[in-house]
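Example A, followed by Example B.
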Amino acid sequence: MRDLFRLLGRYHVLLLFFVAQGFALSWYASSHGHPRGKWVRSHLAITGAWDAQWSSIASLASLAEENEQLARDLAEARGQTHSTPSFRHHPAKVIRSTSHATHNVLVLEKSDSLQRWTPDQGVLSQGFAAGRILEVEGAYALAVPLITAGMEWSGRVRRDGPVGRVRWKVGDPERGQMIDVPRSTNVFPGDTLFTTGFQGVFPPDVPIGRVVDRKGPESEEFSTLEFEYLVDFRSLRYVEWVERPDATLIDSLLNTFNNLSWTD
């Protein structure tokens, strides 16, 4: 305290000068029209710019929340719209994903705690085929997207075309290949590839991608189609997982079929 008084005593003249200067500027700005207008305009410019910055930040945060809510609502709406007696759709949030690894993954969190998901259920994004659930633990699931090396899926050229095997063109998150397509099949760029439903993962006729090229020598009986995925795997936020209520019955029938003893 003694040091503070000594400091005030040493610089009291300078402090009085600043106080007097403040009163003078305040009186001058408030009693003279031009200086007052300039002072107000300067203050308005500074505070306006500051408020604009904070408003932009607040707007971005609000927009992000609105986009997230919109994505969630759309996923729920698509689930209700595309559900059938055999396949029911439920929304889930993507909380982690990869798209540039050799074996990519999706980590999902389901929105409805009352719905029970199981391995081998399909995952859709905006109504397009996206992947398959591998493991589940409570509200979370580990899924593999279509862009995973070593995974093959059943696909069909258009809704009435031949069936082929769909696989990822490793290294390119936007492109895949359908192999073993008969050369006699008329296929054109822009044709859509659909799921068949044979694997029990996806419902039939779910779009997978669009053909961009056909490869393989003309002399070969089968060709390879190169296509672009309809799902943007680098920006997945909300998806739908597909519940198959009759899965137990179908699996039971298949087991019965496999256990039959065939005789001539």
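Example B, a separate protein, is given below in the same form.
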Amino acid sequence: MHIQVKVPGSCGELIQGTLDGEPFLVTCPIDSYTKVTVQEGKTRPQGLGAKSQQALQKVMELFQIKEYPYAMRLESELLPGKGMASSSADIAAVCFAAAASLGETLSAEKVAEIAAAIEPTDGIFFEGIVSLNQMTGCCRESFGTLPKISIAVFDLGGTVDTLHFHARQDLARLNRKNEPAIKKAVALLASREVNCLGQAATISALANQSILYKAALPKIIAAAANTGAIGVNVAHSGTVLGILFAPDFPQEKIAGAVGLLRRAFPRLIYMKTARLIAGGCLITGKDR
């Protein structure tokens, strides 16, 4: 048996906030991944953090397995505490891989339920781009496949603890104040047009300044626009941000824009240029 599961991470979110008091985020999956491999053998799981170990335990309980009978290994390209959905990708990949190795299947909805019981979850393991209640794991809406924009991913430095962020006492009040802007962002995104996507992300990023302030963000947005970017998105509970470019924007011009931004904002750490992809889970290999 050799099973491999890949789940994408994210560059923050396209939109995050509340509507009528209900929290939600719109996923921003990119081509960076968590990978889980399962093989014959009974060694201890390798590379699993505390949250993904909890996920494995929950899958075992679901399928009434007392001891996991195979060797599992987790590897990830995603940095924790940055807003790249690293924990969500880890949890989902472990869930899908464990189920497949046991000859079972799990829906994205069930994985979201498991993930949300561990911590507020991203929805990068759902197909396409979705709006998800991160607290319950309930998928609110699917936007299908959006234009495959390029995203120059930058990190502002530091980390944010997801659990602590969502436990803030002022979070509901601040999100409520932002709802008019968030409604506008959602309406723009619903058009699925490239420029509207960039505008929606930028509106949500700026609204989030009252919740998790990012120094120089308005200046970064203005500078990005001057390079030809269609907008900027952020990790609303993390430290990364993305400079968004239309799918047909030349890669050499993106490289030039990255250079300009690095010189203009020396504290910005360039990570990679990614693509917005459809979320989901890729399972390959044989279970027996």
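On Example B: Residues 2-141+277-286 form a domain with the Ribosomal Protein S5; domain 2 fold (CATH 3.30.230.10).
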